[in-house]
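User: C-alpha cells in, sequence out, please.
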C-alpha cells in the first residue's frame, strides 16, 4: 500500500478512477474492522476449519461487501507496480534500478506489517468477545487462543508479494498471465488433504493457518495470482488508456459471470461447496486462501466499480473527495484506522457493541481521519519521489 506501486500512472499522469476505487476499498475495509473491534464480530472463511454460517442477511452482507478489499489491494498493487516501472523507464531508470526500488518498497511494507500491524492483532485478542456471535462457525478457527503466535497478515503479505512482483518485472507481460493461472491452479488443487497447513514454509506459500506459532492469513502464492493479474491489467490498460478504460466493464462482467458459473457447477474452483441452497451460501465462498470463485467474483465487481467510477462526474474524483483523499494515503489510513478502532474498542466498548453501533463507529472514524489524511497527503507530496515518506 505505498504511493507509486498502488497508484495509477501513465508516465506522469494519474488515473483518478484508480485512486477513487482504492479509496472506496479503504472505506469498505474499515467496515470489517469496525465490526471486529467494536461489535467483536468477524467471520471466517478458511479452506479447512472455520467457515461462518449466517441466519440473517445483515451480518452476512456486512462481511460480504468487504470481500472486495483484499483482492482489490493485491490487484491494484500489481497494476501500480507496472505503471511505476513504466514511468521510471520513461524517466531513464535502468531495469535493475526499477526492480531494486520495487523490492525495497515491498520489504518496507513487509516490515511495517510485522512491526505496526501485528501488535494490533495481539491487542485485539485481549478484547472481551461478543456474548452472541452473529455468524456461526462450522468448525474451530485455526487459532484458539491457547498458544502464543506471531502473525503474517495483510501488510506482510502485500510486501512479500511485491518483492516477488519486482522480479516479475524482468519477464514479458504475457508470462504474468501464465503465473496467474499457475497460482490459481495451485491454490485450488494442492491444498493438503489433511486440512492442516503443514510446515511453516507451506503455510507461508500456500495453505493459511497456524503453523509453528505463526498464524498465516494471506499466503504468497494465492495472492500473487491477483497481483500478477493486476500487472498484466496495468500493461493492457496502458496500451490504449482511453479505449481500454471503456472496456473495463467487459472484463469485470466476464469475471463475475465466470464466478457465478463455477459456483453453480460446483467442484473445482470452489474449495468448499455450499452447505445449503440459500443465496447466502451461494455467495459465501472461501477467502483463506481465495478460491477461484472468490477471486473472480471479487475482482469482477471491483472492475465493474472501476468502470463506473471512470464514468462518474469529476466531482467524485476531485482532490477533496473522500475517495481520492483515502485512496491517495492508503497505508497511512490503514494504520491510523486500525489503531483508532482498537483504541475506541478498549475505551468505549468494554462489552461488545451491536453491529449498528459498529457502523456508527465506522462513520465517526472516517470523519475523524479525513483531515489527517488531507494533511498527510500534502506532506508526503512535498517529499521527493524516492523518499520513504511516500510509502504511507
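Assistant: Sequence out:
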Amino acid at each position: 500500500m505505498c504511493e507509486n506501486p498502488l497508484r495509477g500512472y501513465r508516465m506522469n499522469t494519474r488515473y483518478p478512477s484508480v485512486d477513487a476505487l482504492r479509496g472506496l476499498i479503504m472505506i469498505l475495509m474499515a467496515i470489517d474492522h469496525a465490526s471486529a473491534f467494536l461489535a467483536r464480530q468477524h467471520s471466517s472463511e478458511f479452506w479447512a476449519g472455520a467457515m461462518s454460517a449466517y441466519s440473517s442477511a445483515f451480518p452476512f452482507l456486512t462481511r460480504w461487501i468487504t470481500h472486495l478489499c483484499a483482492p482489490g489491494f493485491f490487484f491494484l498493487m500489481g497494476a501500480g507496480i507496472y505503471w511505476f516501472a513504466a514511468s521510471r523507464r520513461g524517466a531513464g531508470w535502468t531495469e535493475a534500478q526499477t526492480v531494486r526500488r520495487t523490492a525495497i518498497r515491498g520489504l518496507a511494507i513487509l516490515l511495517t506489517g510485522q512491526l505496526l500491524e501485528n501488535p494490533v492483532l495481539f491487542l485485539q485478542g485481549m478484547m472481551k468477545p461478543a456474548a452472541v456471535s452473529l455468524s456461526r462457525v462450522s468448525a474451530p478457527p485455526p487459532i484458539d487462543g491457547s498458544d502464543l503466535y506471531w502473525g503474517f497478515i495483510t501488510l506482510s503479505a502485500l510486501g512479500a508479494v511485491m518483492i516477488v512482483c519486482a522480479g516479475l518485472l524482468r519477464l514479458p507481460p504475457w508470462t504474468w498471465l501464465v503465473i496467474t493461472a499457475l497460482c490459481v491452479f495451485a491454490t485450488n488443487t494442492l491444498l493438503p488433504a489433511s486440512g492442516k497447513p503443514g510446515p511453516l514454509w507451506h503455510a507461508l506459500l500456500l495453505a493459511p493457518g497456524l503453523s509453528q506459532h505463526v498464524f498465516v492469513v494471506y499466503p504468497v502464492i494465492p495472492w500473487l495470482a491477483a497481483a500478477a493479474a493486476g500487472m498484466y491489467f496495468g500493461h493492457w490498460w496502458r496500451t490504449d488508456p482511453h479505449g481500454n478504460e471503456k472496456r473495463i466493464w467487459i472484463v469485470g462482467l466476464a469475471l463475475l459471470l465466470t464466478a457465478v458459473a463455477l459456483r453453480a457447477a460446483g467442484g473445482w474452483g470452489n474449495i468448499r461447496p455450499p452447505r445449503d441452497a440459500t443465496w447466502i451460501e451461494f455467495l459465501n465462498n472461501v477467502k483463506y486462501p481465495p478460491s477461484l470463485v472468490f477471486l473472480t467474483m471479487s475482482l469482477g465487481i471491483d472492475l465493474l466499480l472501476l468502470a463506473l467510477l471512470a464514468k462518474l462526474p469529476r466531482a467524485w474524483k476531485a482532490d477533496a473527495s473522500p475517495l481520492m483523499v483515502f485512496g491517495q494515503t492508503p497505508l497511512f489510513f490503514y494504520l491510523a484506522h486500525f489503531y483508532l478502532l482498537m483504541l475506541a474498542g478498549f475505551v468505549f466498548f468494554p462489552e461488545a457493541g451491536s453491529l449498528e453501533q459498529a457502523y456508527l463507529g465506522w462513520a465517526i472514524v472516517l470523519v475523524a481521519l479525513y483531515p489527517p489524511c488531507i494533511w498527510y497527503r500534502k506532506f508526503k507530496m512535498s517529499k521527493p519521489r524516492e523518499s520513504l515518506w511516500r510509502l504511507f
